[in-house]
């Protein structure tokens, strides 16, 4: 059986990545082509240079599609947390008498909840259920064929900002006829990088990046909450630049990645110089700058976990990925100590595809392929380029 080739675009805080690939053996996938380019990114729900973003996104995808000999009829674009909204709904319907629940009954219950939540600013893109409830008070993953006089559900709805989807559509509209699909990037990462036990057992997933970070909390296959956090590698570099009055990138990177957040001086404070080419750079002072950034991430994560009653004590571990802060020596230990939750690095289920800077793109590729093979079908909308 020949596998269908798919194309995905991963939009991160500092770069755009496009992949073309298909399903391989043992549920792996084969990447046929890939390209990445830097751009200015986004902040507070808007792109910093919309015109440049549209131009770069269009040229990136066009170059990739021109190079492939495979027919591509759909492009999947990942939606960052910055442009996502999560809402929980609890729809309920009562029947005149006991009946056997059909697939149509379950779909109508969920579809009704989606229609109630329609907005002029957001478009629903994914729906997922925590569980269904029957009239005998039992909770089930799938109610089909169950006998009940009522049906309820606890469900999660994910919405994409119309600002984001409209901008992507405008960027790609001049291209040849091709379907455009949107997938929430945090959801794809959670499904790809967290096993079923981790998703059900209370695991917080954090993806750190250059200009920002994304937090994801799931319960089974459903998203509980997401958060976009404006803290990343660039925050550290900016504060180091201000403290030492320098714009020398090599020096700033040396300071950031030469330090150790658990460095303890044997001869008292502020005595150990850092070997980075300047005599006034001490481990203690650099650490103080990095602590200020990491403490912001810790505080935001703690608040995120406290937003709903009892949420924090249900989180048993934190899984992190990405670049920047996780690469600073001692970061995991510092983060874990102050949140009192074990921190682990995310590992791809496919060892060959385990580079931190690519895991979000690989996650999108995995979900996009599953959708073409009808193994995952919670998507609510398709947008078409005309």
Oligomeric description of these chains: single chain
Placed side by side, the strands forming the largest sheet appear as 3-2-1-6-12-18
How many strands appear in the DSSP assignment?
18
Q: How many helical elements?
A: 11
Order of helices and strands: EEEEEHEEEHEEEHEHHEEEHHHHEHEHE
Helices and strands in order, then pairings?
Layout: E1 6-11, E2 15-23, E3 29-38, E4 42-43, E5 46-47, H1 50-67, E6 74-79, E7 84-89, E8 92-100, H2 103-116, E9 122-134, E10 139-140, E11 147-161, H3 162-172, E12 178-184, H4 185-193, H5 196-200, E13 203-208, E14 213-219, E15 222-229, H6 233-244, H7 249-258, H8 283-306, H9 311-314, E16 317-322, H10 331-339, E17 343-345, H11 359-372, E18 383-385
Parallel strand pairs: 1-6, 6-12, 13-16, 16-17
Antiparallel strand pairs: 1-2, 2-3, 4-5, 7-11, 8-11, 9-10, 9-11, 12-18, 13-14, 14-15
Account of the protein in words:
The protein has 386 residues and is an alpha+beta fold. It has 11 helices and 18 strands. The strands form 4 sheets. It has a 6-stranded mixed sheet, with helices on both faces. Strand 1 (6-11) and strand 2 form a beta hairpin. Helix 1 crosses helix 3 and helix 6 (233-244) runs antiparallel to helix 8. It is globular, with a radius of gyration of 23 Å. The two termini are 31 Å apart.
List keywords for this structure.
single chain, 6-stranded mixed β-sheet, 34% helix, alpha+beta, 386 residues, globular
Write a brief caption for the model.
The protein is α+β, with helices and mostly antiparallel strands and 386 residues long.
């Amino acid at each position: 059986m020949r596998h269908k080739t798919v194309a995905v675009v991963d939009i991160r805080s500092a770069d755009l990545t496009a992949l073309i690939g298909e399903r391989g053996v043992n549920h792996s996938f084969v990447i046929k082509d890939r390209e990445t380019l830097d751009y200015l990114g986004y902040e507070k729900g808007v792109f910093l240079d919309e015109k440049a973003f549209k131009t770069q996104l269009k040229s990136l995808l066009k170059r990739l599609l021109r190079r492939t000999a495979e027919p591509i009829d759909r492009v999947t674009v990942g939606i960052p947390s910055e442009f996502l909204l999560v809402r929980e709904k609890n729809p309920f319907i009562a029947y005149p008498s006991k009946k056997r629940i059909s697939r149509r009954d379950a779909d109508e219950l969920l579809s009704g909840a989606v229609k109630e939540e329609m907005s002029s600013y957001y478009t629903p893109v994914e729906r997922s259920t925590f569980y269904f409830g029957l009239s005998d008070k039992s909770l089930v993953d799938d109610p089909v064929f169950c006998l009940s006089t009522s049906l309820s559900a606890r469900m999660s709805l994910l919405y994409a900002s119309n600002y984001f989807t409209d901008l992507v559509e405008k960027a790609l509209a001049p291209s040849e006829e091709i379907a455009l699909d949107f997938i929430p990037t945090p959801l794809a990462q959670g499904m790809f990088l967290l096993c079923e036990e981790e998703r059900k057992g209370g695991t917080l997933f954090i993806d750190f990046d250059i200009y920002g970070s994304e937090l994801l909390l799931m319960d089974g296959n459903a998203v509980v909450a997401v958060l976009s956090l404006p803290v990343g590698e660039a925050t550290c570099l900016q504060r180091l630049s201000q403290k030492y009055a320098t714009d020398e990138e090599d020096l700033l990177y040396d300071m950031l990645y030469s330090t150790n957040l658990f460095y303890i001086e044997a001869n008292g404070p502020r005595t150990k110089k850092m070997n980075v080419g300047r005599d006034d750079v001490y481990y203690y002072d650099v650490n103080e700058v990095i602590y200020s950034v990491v403490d912001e991430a810790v505080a935001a994560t703690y608040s995120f976990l406290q937003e709903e009653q009892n949420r924090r004590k249900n989180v048993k571990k934190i899984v992190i990925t990405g670049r920047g802060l996780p690469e600073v020596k001692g970061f995991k230990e510092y983060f874990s100590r102050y949140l009192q939750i074990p921190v682990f690095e995310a590992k791809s289920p496919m060892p060959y595809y385990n580079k931190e800077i690519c895991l979000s793109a690989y996650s999108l590729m995995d979900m996009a392929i599953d959708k073409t093979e009808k193994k995952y079908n919670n998507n609510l909308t398709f947008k078409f380029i005309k």
